[in-house]
Amino acid sequence: MQSGDRVPDFTATDQTGAQVTLAELLAKGPLVLFFYPKAFTPGCTQESCHFRDMYGEIQAAGGHAVGVSADSVEQQAKFAGTYSFPFPLLSDADHAIARLFGIKRAGFLPAKRSTFVIDRDSTVRGVIASELNMDTHADRAIAVLRELANA
Q: What are the residue numbers of the active site?
């Protein structure tokens, strides 16, 4: 997926076991969908905690965040509970969402660390891809959300 692409609707299970669709998530406003390779690993924990710490700014810019990894629903629940994330974590155990976004890879870490800012009409408005700079994902997503709000 690249800026300007439209994301087709998908369904996933969050850390509570509830089924959610992209359409339901977009009904709440622009979405920051961030992919992290594996819960509880150092980089993924840093990235997810930065999203948590910046969540007020994400909301102030008119958006909301949702994390995605190939971890099980149970592992997502532990991760969310341990770090008190104020946003849902989706389980992509079959890698369908990572494939949809073109970030699936083989091996121990099945998805590239990537963030997509998606507007209410399901159009991708920003793509952030950095494997090493964990904080850039939330920081750049907030900048994209602010641009959308001022457009």
A: 44
DSSP state, residue 30: S
Residues in contact with 100: Cβ distance below 8 Å, sequence separation at least 6, in sequence order: 1, 7, 8, 10
CB 135 within 8 A of CB 13: no
- 73-107, pLDDT tens digit by residue? 999 999 999 999 999 999 999 999 999 998 876 66
- Closest CA relative to residue 135, chosen from 115, 118, 121, 149: 115
CA angle in degrees (0–180, nearest 5) for 93-94-97? 95
- How much is the pTM? 0.93
Beta partners for residue 90, in sequence order? 14, 68
Amino acid letter, residue 107: G
Give the integer Cα–Cα distance in Å for 91 and 70. 6
Pairing of strands 31-35, 19-21: unpaired
